[in-house]
Amino acid sequence: MNVLLINGSPHAHGCTDAALQEIAKALNADGIETTIYHIGAVPVGGCVGCGGCAKAGHCVFGGPVVDVLPLVEKADGIVFGAPVHYSTAAASMLGFMHRLGYSAGRLLAQKPAAIVTSARRAGTTTTLDQLVKYPQFFHMPLVNGSYWAMVHGSNAEQVMQDAEGCAVMQELGRNMAWLLHCIEAGKAAGF
What we know:
This protein is α/β, with parallel strands linked by helices. It contains 9 helices and 6 strands. Strands 1, 2, 3, 4, 5 and 6 form a 6-stranded mixed beta sheet that branches. Strand 1, helix 1 and strand 2 form a beta-alpha-beta unit. The chain is globular.
């Protein structure tokens, strides 16, 4: 089994990555392989509703939305991570999610998903509220920890000092692993 963790931050090794690394450690400890995909620092535009993906089978504008498709197809579960920018999700992550959902929503269906966010101080609940709608729309069971899936800090080192946030990330990883093992057991039993 494999979980794809998507880093929607412009910083490859910043706060969002630190949160995703904590989730990956917990998943790996439960025998789940992980892949972290960074959407990059180049701006990702939103969907323009051109419909070109219906003919091409993928977003015609390319970039990370198309590059990630083999990983999405292979994944048994997906974690979407985004930093807070001006009290909302980073614009590139929103554009990425719009285009991925519109052009490849069929690849997301029925895969467990989680949303995580990082911020220096505030805006995390708004960001979680924004991003949680995508998995719900695509019939993805939502996985969480025991509290809001957020970490706080100005850099990765500070995030690692957020003991409660890191504990929630680890629990989220364990919960994702549990659900994936349950799904696997159900498939083995013929469900």
